[in-house]
Structures are given as C-alpha cells and as structure tokens.
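Standup notes
- DV: blocked on the single-chain target, sequence here:
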Amino acid sequence: MNKPYNILFLCTGNSCRSQIAEGWARKYGGSSFDVQSAGIESHGKNPRAITVMKETGVDISNQESTIVSDAMLENADLVVTVCGHADEHCPVLPAGTNKEHWPLEDPAKATGSEQEIMNQFRASCDDIEQRVKDLLARHTEKNEPQD
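- DV (later): unblocked, structure below
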C-alpha cells in the first residue's frame, strides 16, 4: 500500500484561504492524501470562512490555526502557498518537496456591506474548491500504479 501523498497549504496567518483549502482537500482527497494547513504566523480562524464552508456542508471549525513547523515541511510532498506573502517568505523546503503557488485574493480584506463581504468569501471558497479538485486530480493520476 502506498503512503498517502502529503499536502501542506501555507498562508500568512492560516486563518482563511489555507483553512478553506484544507477543508476541501479533506473532503475530496480521501485516504490517498494527508492534508494540513499552516501559516507563517497564526492569526486564529476566520469566522466568515467557517460560515461559508459550513454553507457547503464542510465543517472546518475543528481545524487549528497553526504556525508551520520543520516537521510539517519535512513530511510534505507538496507545499501550496496560497498568498504572495507566504510564497515570498516560504521557508526553505527539504530536497524533493514540490511547491506550487496559488495567488489568491484575501477575502478577509474585502470591504462593503456584510452581504458583499460574504459574497467575496463565497467566491473565494468556490475558486479554492476548483483549484483543490484540479490539484487532487493531477496527483491522483501521478500516484496510480502503472501497467
């Protein structure tokens, strides 16, 4: 049996985008993937991110906002940075660890009415869901046994 492919979603504060990505990857990844998220810093969980994910049927309220550790980086097969700050300040990765960057807008910086802000969170949630599905599909194809 192959060991699960380990994906680490890395953001600045591990409060929103990386949390959403972790939630989607857990939903769609199954036992073929180990999934974590972390931040360069820890900003706590964003309640709007929890709300929009709950609207989709994915509960991320029990995920933790954590600071990236050396062990997380050592165990990761792939690190996905989900913001420019995390991409620029990403720690040096161990040899053999792949890296991918998703330049996602931060919905936590959205302005306007509560409805407009929540619509921005929903749009981010949908965007991240599609990116996660694409990512998992690419890595599922790579990890399938060859004839």
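- Follow-up: The chain has one domain: 5-137.
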